[in-house]
Amino acid sequence: MSEHTDDLVLVINSGSSSIKYQLLDPESGTVAASGLVERIGEERGSIEHRVDGRTAEHEGPIPDHKAGLRLVFDMFAETGHDLAGAGVRAVGHRVVHGGEIFYEPTLITDEVVAAIAALSTLAPLHNPANVTGIQCTRELLPGVPQVAVFDTAFFHGLPAAAKTYAIDAEVAAAHGIRKYGFHGTSHEYVAGQVAEFLDRAPEQTNQIIFHLGNGASASAIRGGRPVDTTMGLTPLEGLVMGTRGGDLDPGILLHLMRSAGLDADAIDALLNRNAGIKGLSGVNDFRELRQLIDAGVESARLAHAVYIHRLRRYLGAYLVELGRVDAITFTAGVGENSDAVRADALADLEMFGIAVDPARNTAKARGARYISPVGAKIPVLVVPTNEELAIARAAHQVVVAGSERG
Fold first, then answer.
1. DSSP state of 40
2. Angle of helix 127-140 versus helix 65-78 axis, rounded to 10
3. What pLDDT tens digit does each residue of the chain (406 aa) get?
4. How many CB atoms lie within 10 A of CB 223?
5. In 3-state terms, what secondary structure has residue 155?
6. Are strands 19-24 and 31-38 parallel, antiparallel or unpaired?
7. Are 18 and 64 in contact (CB under 8 A)?
8. Beta strands 90-95 and 9-14: pairing type?
9. What are phi and psi of 199, to 5 degrees?
């Protein structure tokens, strides 16, 4: 591919110790290059940079995000894409929490960066890393417009009954306590893909989406707009996840504070890093979990059963919420790749018009596809998500609209 990249968008997803990135064409979805920086701040970091079917690797200390991004920019230049001089049209940043302030893609300014940083109290593991990635990229590409795309944006307009917690209203208002929802970029993208796959107008499509990765969430979408989702004020609520337990009796936290002497930081670590599948089985990768189950490890079997139990509970709730359901869809790493999770989540539901065809479900296929039997009342689908493409398109649209306004 030539170095001329005038209409490409660089997408940055900064985590606490990692950076995912893609350089892609927002119109066609063609990826020019992509990569992953891991173990930032550790003794031995790594970068895997993929371009034109080839992979370039770097190993060694990566002290901070700025150093990681500088190395990434060097690897771009070495493989034919000099980002600093090639005229990249825009940079799109994934930002986890937009609070009540941000609910659409937003051109980044100093004031926007400060506001995102201030929202770190609502997303202490995510927003600080997002801010760091934004600041570093603005220094490295000072003349390129940069856009923040918020994970919470799609769920901003949830109905009042769905987003309101039943606590003191003044306390909730003073501290921004409401259901915000997350993975919104993925849920919105997949909802559009489902409607297209079914050849239905989005505004005439009711659907349930399970975004199942290391983080996991579900949404109920009526006529193209979400009416409920599982994650809440933070990404801790809802489904069982890789290292997060999802729904929890808040009295458990009070009990641990009193009986175990745990402080806020210890509880934070327990809930975010040592709960969920990992807390129950010792592993958080579903491939490893499946190996343990096949080896007869009881804790792994229980972890899978708890995971499935929670999925089915929300499936039932959302079937009632929507009334008419036109599709149930699985997406993200676990949702797209674990036929056992899909089969177990929807087992013995034929009375509701829901079934999984074993051959379709286990077929090694890519792209959007049916896994329900032919003629099933409610189609069950697997639809790959593409958050990077959604972010690139949103960022490109903001920049083009700004240019057209002068």
1. T
2. 50
3. 444 446 899 999 998 788 999 999 999 999 999 999 998 988 889 999 999 889 999 999 999 888 999 999 999 999 888 887 766 999 999 999 999 999 999 999 999 999 999 999 888 878 999 999 999 999 999 989 999 999 999 999 999 999 999 999 999 999 999 999 999 999 999 999 999 999 999 999 999 999 999 999 999 999 999 999 999 999 999 999 999 999 999 999 999 999 999 999 999 999 988 999 999 999 998 999 999 999 999 999 999 999 999 999 999 999 999 999 999 999 999 999 999 999 999 999 999 999 999 999 999 988 999 999 999 999 999 999 999 999 999 999 999 987 766 6
4. 13
5. helix
6. antiparallel
7. no
8. parallel
9. 60, 45
Amino acid at 369: R
Asked whether the beta carbons of 158 and 103 are under 8 A apart, the reply is: no
Whether residue 357 lies in the annotated active site: no
Cut 0.85: pTM above it: yes
Task: Look up residue 331 and give its amino acid.
Answer: T
Catalytic one of 7, 25, 52, 151: 151
Taking alpha carbons only, the member of 127, 128, 125, 79 closest to residue 102 is 127
- Spatial contact of 23 and 8, defined as CB atoms under 8 Å apart: yes
Residue type, 317: A
| Helix axis angle, 298-322 to 286-294, nearest 10° | 120
